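Q: Start with the shorter request: fold the first protein.
A: Done. Sequence, then structure:
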Amino acid sequence: MARWSLVLTAAMAAGLLASPVTDANAAAKIPVDKEAARKEADAKQLVIAVLDVQLVMRRAAAAKGINTAMEARRKAFEEEIAAEREVLKDEEQKLRKQGTILSPEAMNEKRRVLENKISDLRRKAEQRRGILNRAFTGATRKLRSEIAKVLAEIMSERKITLTLARKAVLVFDQRLSVTDEVLKRLDENMPNVTIDFKNPDAK
C-alpha cells in the first residue's frame, strides 16, 4: 500500500511540474496581433505639432495684402453705387416737381421707368457684393493652399506625424508650435496673392 502511495505521489508531482511547460507551449501557439503591435509601435514614435492657422491668416504678408486690396475695391464699389443713387434721387425730385404739369399717364410712365432704374441699381449692388465675396474666397483659398504646402514641408523635415489646430488644443508645450516657422516660410514663398475681381470664380 505504501508502494502505491509513493507511485501516486510521484505521478502527481510529475504532473504539476509538467503543467507550466504545457501552458508555455500553448501560449507560444497563440497568434500575435501584428496590427495591434504596429499601432503600438507607431504610437511610441508619434511626433505632434501645433499650428495656429487663424494667427497665420491674420499676420501673413499675403493676408494683409488681400485685406488691403479688398477694402480698396469695396470702397470703390460703394462710391460708384452711392453716385448712381444720388442721380436717381435727383430724377425722383424732378419727377415730383413735374407732377403738376404732366398728365397722369405720362407721370405713371416716368415713375415706372424710375422704379426700374432703382431695381437695376439694387441688383447691381448685390452683384458687386457677390463679386467681392467670391474674390475674397478665391484669394484666401490660394493662401490656405500655400499654408498646407509649407506645413507639409516642415512635417517632412521634422518627421512630424500629426499637426493639430491651435483652437483644438487647450494647453500645450510651446516647443510643439510650428506657427512661427510656417509664417516665416509663407511670407518668403507667397508675399502677396493676386485677387481676380473680373473672374472671381476661377480656381
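Q: Next, the second protein, separately.
A: Sequence, then structure:
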Amino acid sequence: MEVNDYIKKHFAKEDEVLLDVIDSLKENNMPTISVPSDAGKLLYLLVKIANAKKVLEVGALGGYSGIWMGRAIPEDGSLTSLELDEKHVDVAKLNMKKAGLDDKVEYLVGDAMESFTELVSSGETFDFFFIDADKENYVAYVESALLCAEPGALIVADNVLWGGKVTDETNDDEQTEAIRAFNRFVSEDPRLEATILPVGDGVMVSRVIK
C-alpha cells in the first residue's frame, strides 16, 4: 500500500455524499480533477483550526472541496464560491444540497477577478481562502484575496507541485511556469508566511500578516 493510500484509508475516508460528487462529474462530462480525499481532509482541518467563519473558494467544480470545507464551517459560517462555468455551479449546487450544506454556500458565476472586484468594492472580508482554478491567475487571485482578507487569514492553494513538474528544469510549459512563478511570489511576499505540504498535488498554506 502506498503512503497516500494509507493516509486516505485511515484519515480521509470518503462517505457516500463525497463519492457521489465524483460520480456526478463523470455523469456530466466534467473534468475529474477534484482534490483527493487527503487534501480535502486537510482543508477541513485547516478551516477548523483557523476557526474560520467566512470562507471563499476560487473554483467550485462539482462541490467536492466545498463539502469538505462546508462541513468544517460553524453554523453561523458561510462559503462563497467563485466559478466561471454555470454548468459546474448547477452540479455543485445539487451536491451541496445532498450534503445538507446548501444554506451555507453562495455561488458567484463568472470571471473570478470580476467577482473579486465586486467583493472588495462591497467591503466583504474573509478569513479563509482556497484557490483551485486556472493556474495562470494564481498570483492575481492571491493579490485579490489580500484585499479582502482579515488579519491572520489563511490563503490555501492546490496543485503547487504540479505533478513534480515544478522541479523539472527542462519543463517550461505555460502552466508549469505559472505555478513556479506563483510559488516564488508567495515565498518572497512580506505580507505572507507560507509553506508547501506534499499532500495530493501539493498544497500551499499561507497566513496573511497584517
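Q: Describe the second briefly.
A: Helices lie at 3-11, 16-27, 37-49, 64-72, 86-98, 112-122, 138-147, 174-188. The first strand starts at residue 54 and ends at 58.
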